Amino acid sequence: MGYDLSKEEIKEKILGKLKRNFGKTLEEATQDQIYKSCALSIRDVIVEKWTDANKQMLNQGLKRLYYLSAEFLMGRALVNNMINLHLLKDYQEVLTDLGLNLENIEEQERDAGLGNGGLGRLAACFLDSLSTLDFPVTGCSIRYEFGLFKQRILDGEQVEVDDNWLEAGNVWEIARPEEQVEVKYGGELEEVWTERGLKINHKNYYSVLAIPYDYPVMGYMSEMPATLRLWSARAKTELDMHYFNRGDYSKAMQERELAEVISKVLYPEDNHEQGRQLRLKQFYFFTSATMQHIVRKHKANYGDLHTLPNYFTVQINDTHPTLAIPELMRILMDEEGMGWDEAFDICSRIFNYTNHTIMAEALERWEEDMFKALLPRIYEIIKVINDKFCDSLWKIYPGEWDKISKMAIISYHEIRMANLCIAVCNKVNGVSKLHGEIIKSRTFRDFYIVFPDKFLGITNGITPRRWLAKANQPLTKLLCDHIGDGFLKDYKEMDRIEDLLDNQKFLDDFMEVKHQNKIHLRDHLKKTQGIEINENTIFDVHAKRLHEYKRQLLKVLHILHLYNLKKENPQVHIEPCTFLFAAKASPGYVRAKNIIRLILAVADLVNNDPDTKDILRVVFIENYSVSEAEILIPATDISEQISTAGLEASGTGNMKFMMNGAVTLGTMDGANVEIYEAVGDDNIFIFGATEQEISRMERFGTYKPGLYYEQNTDLRLALNRLIDGSLHVANDRQFSDLYHSLLFGEMQRADQYYLLYDFASYTQAYEQIVSAYVDKERWKRMAAMNTAKSGRFSSDRTINEYNELIWHLRKMSERK
Ligand code: 475
Q1: In terms of CB atoms within 10 Å, which of 312, 506, 514, 578 comes out highest?
Q2: Which parts of the sequence carry N6-(pyridoxal phosphate)lysine (predicted)?
Q3: The domain made up of 61-76+111-425 is a member of CATH 3.40.50.2000
Q4: Inter-axis angle of helices 7-22 and 31-59, to 10 degrees?
């Protein structure tokens, strides 16, 4: 059952859009105009549902979730929307009749790359699931003019290119200038007495307009499209006429430029915060705009602000949107005349916080003086929250200054956003079982003791619509042929795949699909990067942001080890394997960029050596993004999930690979632990130190990487390749920095991520997974088992858990 649109109507709509929007016939139109006409025809259908649903939601008095996130990594929308409206097949047929090809049309759409990695992509999966489950939601963020940079590889290095994704216009967005709000920065505060008591006057501030752009996000067969609201910054006056009239045109433009820089660019750091002023401006910009919007809307619909928590709940995606809390306090008190206690009570019922990382460098802190100058009133409010919070701690821990100053929101001239979230929010959650435990027992231990009921762990998920139905149409078709298409709406139905694991025909078809996907990736890489790969080798994939804790370097050392084996003994059998890496490094992260140089140098060595070039092939896929992932993941045999145990909060790539029938080679980290529980010991390859082992070594400082170097010859020989001149690099910089970091390190911290510790067990696990692979009967069952057990990693399950434990939203009930 699709949306009620006949093929004839689809055709008319597309041709009509071409004619009316672009004044073109099909013959005259460009590919871009054809894409836009298709997109507009789909948008009409969605917007109609969206408008009805939002009205209906108000009539039914439903609570709405606001999901605040500095990032939404959406990718492309066109085909996803066709799938979710059940119109894909009809569109494909109509386009074929018109002599067009959907794949080419799809490529006209630019990825909405408004995110760095896991955190932003999770937000995108959540919108899809929320809509699919008919829960009302608005996601709020910034309409970055430049999304995450595009990555090119030039002369063996990463080069960043700007991503001007709005250049050719964006057909999905609807500007709503009538809902603009003003966001104020800087200035001074003044206390004045009025009849209603003490009032805070904010003077000499400068303000920026926030203009919302709304995107409907269509879930699968949904009655309740989600809204993604992106705020764009604009100056209050386009030109300063005072300067303009004197002929100083550049000065006349200055204010405009200063204002608009706020929504110009997404900071490209993943799992890292640097405390820069513009970043703070961005965070206040979108949170202030969102809170003003919520209050305005609530007053218009319901009048009384005391009922706010009955109609709104807010999820803070990592600490980036934390300023929403003091901003709501400010609005309720300064603009609406509410008292502190009432306002605080409302905030503590509305807000919830998700933590996504325990990496110290990612914990958001702001220098107190800078903060105070930029946001004086918000600073004051945080200070009062802090004072009251510390007072309450004093009652629990009298005299324990150390503990209290560790838990304080402001301490040592820094404002710590995670502490603010925990002090105020109703619930605080981690993103996997293990991560949930780690935040309770280590990261936020002192808080957990005081507020045991606040903390929970909710394991992440991924949407099977994008990561199966969209990315892997052949596999989706195979599954539909056997178990129907119910699994796309009800993840529990995926369990039925397990019944097929004794069906030889199914398993053979499953592997044939994998083979076709590998050919598809082969052709794609040939076309986009001119790289040749052999689909009859194992595809072993490490794809995620480049970060030392994700240990791309461990994988490289292992490849060097295999290379050494072959060079040492040409008779040795090594199963032919293609090692695919895909990773962006943050532009300022020097060591991460060096690791990319190393991967490319190793590729050069291994791929060009006649002794190894047909056995080992190393490929670096440029510009990893949602659209690249959609091609890469379905083609993968081995999924590398090899982070240092305890450091990957959850991982979601691990789930995408699993769902697409790849087998995991991984550590007991994040959600790998739960993948292990789901598929069982026989269908996953686990290696390396556990989180407990690592934390013991950390605590007692007992880890001595040099020992492993001395004792493990394979490891030593692999590592020596980094400095012995084997690797050719364009500008002659060798890899001594990486070598040094593993053996000597900085400040006595060598090999912080335990690569040398885990090397031997990784090598062993790799051998095991390869012997499983060559046993075709064993492998196909294993691969299919991974897909069969992936239902619980659907983000629909995740959203249901959030809803039961935190949000308590009601679905829109049947209409009419
Ligand atoms: C985790 N980003 C994954 C994923 O929960 C997890 C932090 C600070 C500044 C900029 N970006 C960040 C993250 O912390 C992040 O993406 N975390 C990731 O969140 C979703 O699956 O393990 O690393």
Answers
A1: 514
A2: 656
A3: yes
A4: 110
383 membership: H or E segment, kind and range: helix 376-396
Dist. CA 715 → ligand 1 center (Å): 31
d(C-alpha 70, C-alpha 318), whole Å: 9
Beta bridge partners of 456: 429
CA angle 149, 155, 158 (to 5 degrees): 25
Q: Retrieve residue 34's tokens.
A: 């054809």
Candidates 121, 298, 320, 356; catalytic one: 356
Q: What's the burial of 97, exposed, middle or buried (CB within 10 Å: 0-12/13-18/19+)?
A: exposed
What are the sequence ranges of the domains in the chain? 61-76+111-425, 464-688+760-791
| CA dist., res. 124 & res. 137, Å (int) | 12
CA distance 185 to 255: 13
Longest dimension (CA), the chain: 93
Residues with Cβ within 8 Å of 609's Cβ and at least 6 positions away in sequence, in order, are 563, 567
Rounded distance between C-alpha atoms, residue 641 and residue 240, angstroms: 54
> How far is the C-alpha of 126 from the C-alpha of 117, rounded, in Å?
14
Residue 367 identity (one-letter amino acid): E
Q: For the packed helices 417-424 and 340-350, what is the interaxial angle rounded to 10 degrees?
A: 100
Task: Determine contact, residues 95/79, Cβ cutoff 8 Å.
Answer: no
CA distance 461 to 656: 9
**Segment 178-203, tens digit of pLDDT:** 999 999 999 999 999 888 788 899 99
Nearest CA to ligand 1 atom 2: 271
Of 67, 71, 144, 271, the one to substitute when testing ligand 1's pocket (max ligand atoms within 8 A of C-beta) is 271
* Under 8 Å between Cβ of 762 and 688: yes
Residue pLDDT, tens place only, 670-688: 999 999 999 999 999 999 9
| CATH architecture observed for domain 464-688+760-791 | 3-Layer(aba) Sandwich (3.40)
CA distances from 781 to 436, 498, 657 (A): 32, 10, 16
Model-level pTM? Answer: 0.98
Q: What is the CA radius of gyration of the chain?
A: 27
* Per-residue tokens: 332: 């309720």
61-76+111-425 and 464-688+760-791: identical CATH topology? yes
Ligand 1 touching residue 269 (CB < 6 A):
yes
Tokens of 777: 């009967």
pLDDT single digits (tens) 254-287: 888 889 999 999 999 999 999 899 999 999 999 9
Of 246, 264, 209, 222, give the one whose Cα is nearest residue 52.
222
Give the CA distances from residue 413 to residues 186, 366, 371, 400, 723, in Å, rounded to whole numbers and listed in that order. 19, 8, 10, 20, 43
Q: Tell how far CA 325 is from the center of its chain.
A: 23
* Residue bearing tokens 């507020």: 451
